[in-house]
Amino acid sequence: MQNLKHAVSGLHGSLRGPSDKSITHRALILGALAQGITEIKSPLTSADITSTMNALRPLGVNFIQRDDTILVDSPGMQNFKRPQNLVLDMGNSGTSTRLLAGVFAGLNLPVTFIGDASLSTRPMQRIITPLSALGAKFKSNDGHLPLTMIHGINAQPINFALPIGSAQVKNAVLLAGLVARVTTTITDKFKTRDHTEQMLPDFGIQLVHTGMTFKITGNQILRPSKIEVPADISAAAFWMVAGTIVPNSVINLEKVNINKTRAGIIDVLTRMNAHIELQKLTAAEPMANVKVITELGLKATTIESIEVPTLIDELPIIALAATQAKGQTIISGAEELAVKETNRITAVTTELQKLGADISATPDGFIINGPSKLSVKRATLLNGHGDHRIAMMLSVAALITEGDVTLVDPDSVGISYPTFFKDLEHLMH
Ligand code: S3P
């Protein structure tokens, strides 16, 4: 239980938020595939990242923590250990499970994935179907964990058109092909996050891009690399919205990743009239220092399917921003939200309604009328539904809520942002 605070005198200060979760997962996995030592500077340290490292250790991969760097010391995928009857506990992490299912399918190394209650309800058929079409064989609990891969892929070459806007599905197939060393061509008409594609050349892998398709020729071997991980825009998003809706705030967010496949929230908040300034920095992954100043004249907006992959994880906090915007915000094409760590469509709607927001759920998003003054008449329990992004969104909502609100499950923030409440304290002082 955590009593949530109201912000009486605005949020102020600078911070470099947690490092990017998606990039850290990928750097650890690609580093493990390469023989030698890969250096990852400023990786995220969180429960989901621990799940990825724990799953790679039985293959003979060592992780050495040195200050703000993780050294991935690996025998390389050609020399991985091949333990029998491997059971991997993936905790809460969908990304670890789906990406590593691809790795194990490429290695043709039988494995069983298990996870926590939330992960055990999340759909795995989306990776079972394409990997099975490539010759892999799985046993699952009706498309859910426990998921056993009985044998890996054998098809070549691989030609895959992404059927849904999921970077995790894209990466499952990409990694299977890379590890099996088969020529792999992937078409991503949804323009899902492209961190793996951006990072592969640093690991010595050549990609050929043609429009929405990219091709990785077979028989390439990864070499170790040095990767610096920028701050996660999905974490910075909470402060972008907090800085916008909490009166008298000025927040500087340092070194935020603004890769265009991830930065939809900046476009959305800008169209809503938020005051966001970007100071672009030169780096391998596009980065910027982001300054946010309170803007109480927010306008409603419309978000449709085309934009959804660029802001999928930010929709809960965008929904909160929309409760403070004048007019009707309609978010559609986001049915994927229903199969995240919790059903985020119902969780966001139920919890924000408790605070007096005018929000209703649709099968693929939300309809929000604003602005609403958020308040509770009597002490109210808010439920993060065990989902880190819902817990953080509600903690930001509380900053502008009148009345006594308590979050029943604050610990979930450890999935992606273990220092969230510490950073909030910093901005309140
Ligand atoms: C992720 C992709 C997204 C996102 C998740 C991380 C990744 O999921 O929601 O938090 O690192 O590839 P989908 O690709 O399933 O939409």
TrEMBL record:
Enolpyruvate transferase domain location: 9-424
Pfam family of the protein (one): EPSP_synthase
Principal localisation: cytoplasm
Annotated catalytic residues: 313
This protein's UniProt keywords: Amino-acid biosynthesis, Aromatic amino acid biosynthesis, Cytoplasm, Transferase
UniProt xrefs under Gene3D superfamilies: Enolpyruvate transferase domain (3.65.10.10)
Protein name from the UniProt record: 3-phosphoshikimate 1-carboxyvinyltransferase
Gene: aroA
